[in-house]
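Q: I'm writing up a methods section and want to include an example of the input and output format. Could you take the sequence below and give the corresponding predicted structure tokens, formatted cleanly so I can copy it straight into the document?
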Amino acid sequence: MSIGQRIRTIRTQKGITQGDISRSTGMRRGYISRVEHGHTVPSVETLHRFAAALDIPMYRFFCTVRDQPAPVAAGGKSPLTLEELAQASSAEGSDARFLLQLKLLMGKMDESDRAFILDCARKLAARQVARKTHPNEVVASLGDRVARGAG
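A: Here is the clean output for your methods example:
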């Protein structure tokens, strides 16, 4: 799989449009399309911009989950299952319990309903990416609140 194909795959999995990438990076949508379709090879600097817009580490363009070794539990044991993680009282345990509930409910739905839920989740995630505020704007906002006495 080419870098452009990986960029496109990651972008679509996250529910992000080429327009979203264009707005967050300043690259033209046409250029993004040419990269994704393999007509243009992006520079390292451009890959950094894509990675920032997709909120991923840059190495993800060069390897897939299948390329990486499976995670190993503490002590070198085999990887923990979701059920084993759910037993923990940590944040990971809470996340695992949530995923188990979701898995149970999704198993009771037909394929079209599952696809609908997944599409909604992608759109919500894309809105979260679009809402991310630049750090300087956060500082300015806090400064305004302090000046008004609301801080």
